[in-house]
Amino acid sequence: MKIQLSLKETHLEIIEDLKKNNSDLNSSKIVEKYIKATLLLNDDELIFGTEREQCKGGCYSSEPQFEIEIEDHDYHRLKSIYKTYNFNDYDTEDEEVSKTIRCILNFVDDEPNLVSI
Predict the structure, then answer these.
(1) Domain assignment of residue 116, yes or no
(2) Domain residues for 76?
(3) b or e along 49-79 (b: 16 or more beta carbons within 10 Å of the residue's beta carbon)?
(4) Coil/strand/helix, residue 6
(5) What is the dihedral of CA 67, 25, 39, 83, to 10 degrees?
(6) What is the C-alpha separation between 106 and 108, in angstroms, rounded?
(7) Residues 58, 99 contacting (CB under 8 angstroms)
(8) Rounded Cα gap, residues 105 and 8, in angstroms
(9) Which of 56, 59, 54, 64 lies closest to 28 in space, CA to CA?
(10) Total of domains in the chain
């Protein structure tokens, strides 16, 4: 499934830092691989708990940046996580899934030794 990923400036900076170690991948591939690797940890509370779901850089300041491809089962898991953690309301499913992906990027940035691609 393809979605239009909405990110904040801080998340774009995280992606640029990740690209330094993975220079052969573009931004969308970096995000896709980190989504998959992070979900494989099977520790939603560690990844999406209160600390990581807090807004960094303005709650609604994210903007559509680029399109990514997410496997259907990962997409549905991200949607389920969004509902479980009762995040702020967004207008579209892409924005809701983008919220969970921003939490993943926050986690990767905060805990770089726990996730690798």
Answers:
(1) no
(2) 2-110
(3) eeebbeebeeeeebeebeebebeeebbebbe
(4) strand
(5) -20
(6) 6
(7) no
(8) 11
(9) 64
(10) 1
DSSP 30-87: HHHHHHHHHHTT--HHHHHSHHHHS-SS-TT--EEEEEEE--HHHHHHHHHHHHHTTP
- pLDDT over threshold 90, residue 27: yes
Residue 117 lies in a domain: no
pLDDT in tens, 37-80: 999 999 999 998 865 555 555 555 677 789 999 999 999 999 99
SS3 (DSSP) at 7: strand
Q: What angle do CA 96, 56, 83 make, to 5 degrees?
A: 25
SS3 of 3, please? strand
pLDDT value of position 87: 84
Side chain identity at residue 89, one-letter code: D
Asked whether residue 63 is domain-assigned, the answer is yes
